[in-house]
Automatic annotation (TrEMBL), chain A:
Database matches in Pfam families: Bac_luciferase
Official protein name in the record: LLM class flavin-dependent oxidoreductase
Keywords from the named record: Flavoprotein, FMN, Monooxygenase, Oxidoreductase
Residues in Luciferase-like domain copies: 20-208
UniProtKB/TrEMBL annotation, chain B:
Gene Ontology MF: a single term: monooxygenase activity
Lineage: Bacteria, Pseudomonadati, Pseudomonadota, Alphaproteobacteria, Hyphomicrobiales
PANTHER family assigned: ALKANESULFONATE MONOOXYGENASE-RELATED (PTHR30011), C2H2 FINGER DOMAIN TRANSCRIPTION FACTOR (EUROFUNG)-RELATED (PTHR30011:SF16)
Residues bound to FMN: 56, 98, 148, 152, 206
UniProt superkingdom: Bacteria
Residues covered by the Luciferase-like domain: 23-366
Keywords: Flavoprotein, FMN, Monooxygenase, Oxidoreductase
Protein name, UniProt field: LLM class flavin-dependent oxidoreductase
Family, as annotated: Belongs to the NtaA/SnaA/DszA monooxygenase family.
Organism whose genome encodes this protein: Tianweitania sediminis
Length: 220, 418
């Protein structure tokens, strides 16, 4: 094992420098080597066409059964998402990975995101910073839909969950109106991480699969 | 008719029977246990199924929490992230999930499914739904449920954008779309899978739903309970597909089928009655009211007949199916509720492996189906018994494959690469 093992790896650079098989190998080796955190980028294609990363949250779902302990974070912008859907997908990823999933709140390429996500229809004139703050409040609130002890599984009594331990959100805001509750149970020991790049601590950026494999001390 | 029938395993955490989770052998915690879902997908792959399928709702399925608390439908995995995980632990079975055109952006959805397609080496499929529930609408803004026709107009535009984004010939080029609901000036920008593009699945059976399927779908799921109805549906959809200039063999019609497989016919009634007895009256009634998208059943005597119901903005075609059957068989509200709670409006087949194979053979050979979407009452046992007992019987009769013919979902379904 290399002595200068990175604590957290941020995958970066051109998508063509990350062929899928090599990407898979990097993630598996990072997990085995004891890297604590993997940050997966979610860059969509530039507005004028060209290369893009596949969907970070879907890659995380694919990585989860292939790894044991590494924390899987997606650096995802909220502009193409609705808070209910993003909260659900992250909660689901947290279950799939047994408590290892999370969201690094990222700013994407706003021009590209407007062009991809019907920005002309949905986002024109919207205060994006205020939208982002409200988005996070809703996601955070939806993750409290279920108390940790809400599910009873009482077959004899016909009681699957305890109604008083399920909570609607009833959020009515400037940008979103979300009744809730979420229909994904929380991971028993917590909830998905929600953080920002500047809160991650030391992060090693790797610009290609080859560079990552070299860093992790193994050839391709 | 193709040489072999197609089979889908319609997986739900705890089973298709509303009370299936209460069965002593059911895995009640499946909605939070990824290992259970992995096992089900691997069982389907062991049985050489074409695909596993997951439905979806972006909200609770039952608005009354006291009723929801008696069923197991309020928690589960978000299906596209679940497909991604299953892609890592299976290698041949197709991976199909439902997602709504009402509460997503086409670029985001196209990108998510294209990523599943990439990591699964060409095994992904998207089941398009337009979402008919007020409960879901309340999680996405205050405007409420859109009218049926408006939802389908948006769905048609949505499907067109997604298909352009998936087009393997132009994956790095910019799609130019400006329409009523969406404005997209962008390409996906990452490679297509070996099957070219994910498989398009639909289940809407209304007139506008059928036309959208005939224009855009590769696979159609449908709830039909008689050979005649299934045959009429398939004939109609094939004719509509031809009218859109497509080869009718390029659309596969797969009715839902809820099997209760027993070793001898003497067991059949007991095994089914055991499940039915687990349905609480109020839960069955609520499920029926939800399918009928009505609150007109409140306070009516359970032993009386269904009242006359007006057409709703919800699931129009399914509502008619329920009403037709209750009139045909002279059923009380409780009987209809229990009947539909058991199979969720789909075709129920109770019998030995040979009985079940007889019926599937009749529908398949008679041109009423290209295959079936199998909906076990509870998991894992009822999928195991289908794979271990019914699949070999179908193989013995030459009705089902003995090996996967292809590595991709399109390949196994007998569809051309996109």
């Amino acid at each position: 094992m290399p002595t200068d093992l990175p604590r957290a790896l941020f995958l970066s650079g051109s998508p063509s420098d990350w062929p899928l098989g090599d990407l898979q190998l990097v993630v598996q080796r990072a997990d085995v080597a004891g890297v604590e955190t993997l940050v997966v980028p979610d860059g969509i294609a530039p507005r004028d066409g060209g290369e893009a990363w596949p969907d970070a949250l879907i890659l995380m779902g694919w990585f989860a059964p292939q790894t044991r302990s590494i924390v899987l974070l997606g650096a995802v912008s909220s502009l193409g998402h609705q808070p209910y859907n993003l909260a659900r997908r992250l909660a689901s990823l947290d279950l799939i990975s047994r408590g290892r999933a999370g969201w690094v709140i990222a700013d994407g390429d706003a021009d590209a995101e407007f062009a991809a996500f019907s920005g002309a229809n949905r986002l024109a004139g919207v205060d994006l910073a205020a939208r982002q703050r409200e988005f996070e409040t809703v996601v955070d609130g939806l993750w409290d839909s279920w108390d940790a002890d809400a599910l009873l599984f009482d077959k004899e009594g016909g009681r699957f969950f305890e109604p008083s331990r399920l909570h609607s959100l009833n959020h009515q805001g400037e940008h979103f109106s979300v009744r809730g509750p979420l229909n994904v149970m929380r991971w028993q020991k917590g909830r998905p991480r929600m953080t920002r790049f500047d809160k991650l601590g030391p992060v090693t950026t790797v610009a290609s699969a080859n560079a990552a494999l070299a860093l992790l001390g193994g050839g391709a | 008719m193709s040489e072999h029938m197609k089979l889908g395993a319609f997986l739900m955490p705890t089973g298709h029977h509303i009370a299936g989770w209460r069965h002593p052998r059911a895995a009640a915690d499946a909605g939070i246990d990824i290992d259970h879902m992995v096992r089900l997908a691997q069982t389907a792959e062991r049985g050489l199924f074409d695909l596993v399928f997951f439905e979806d709702a972006a909200g609770l399925r039952e608005g009354r929490v006291d009723l929801a608390a008696q069923a197991a439908r309020s928690v589960g995995f978000e299906p596209i992230s679940l497909l991604a995980a299953l892609a890592a632990v299976t290698s041949r079975v197709g991976l199909v999930a439902t997602a709504s055109t009402s509460y997503n952006e086409p670029y985001a959805l196209a990108r998510a499914f294209a990523t599943v397609d990439l990591v699964s080496n060409g095994r992904a499929g998207w089941n398009l739904v337009t979402s008919a529930s007020e409960i879901e609408a309340a999680n996405f803004g205050a405007q409420g449920l859109r009218a049926h026709r408006d939802r389908y107009a948006r769905a048609g535009e949505f499907a067109d954008v997604v298909r352009q984004l998936w087009d393997p010939a132009t994956r790095n080029a910019t799609v130019h779309h400006r329409g009523e609901s969406f404005a997209v000036e962008q390409g996906l920008g990452f490679p297509a899978s070996p099957q070219g593009a994910p498989v398009m699945v639909q289940a809407g059976a209304s007139d506008v739903g059928r036309d959208l399927a005939a224009r855009t779908a590769d696979v159609v799921f449908v709830a039909t309970q008689t050979f005649e109805a299934a045959k009429a549906f398939r004939d109609d959809l094939r004719a509509r597909t031809s009218a859109h200039g497509r080869d009718p063999d390029a659309i596969k019609i797969m009715p839902g089928m809820s099997p209760v497989v027993v070793e001898s016919r003497a067991e059949a009634e007991d095994k089914f009655a055991e499940l039915q007895a687990l349905i609480p009256d109020d839960v069955g009634l609520a499920l029926l009211a939800s399918y009928l998208a009505t609150d007109a059943l409140n306070g009516l005597p359970l032993d009386g007949p269904l009242p006359d119901l007006k057409s709703t903005e919800g699931m129009q075609s399914r509502q008619q199916l329920v009403i037709d059957q209750s009139r045909r068989d002279g059923l009380s509200i409780r009987q209809v509720a229990q009947h539909f709670a058991g199979a969720r409006g789909h075709w129920r087949l109770v019998g030995t492996p040979s009985d079940v194979a007889d019926q599937l053979e009749e529908w398949f050979v008679g041109g009423a189906a290209d295959g079936f979407n199998v909906m076990p009452a509870y998991f894992p046992d009822e999928l195991d018994i289908f794979v271990d007992r019914v699949v070999p019987e179908l193989q013995r009769r030459g009705l089902f494959r003995s090996n996967y013919a292809s590595d991709t979902l399109r390949g196994n379904l007998g569809l051309p690469v996109a």
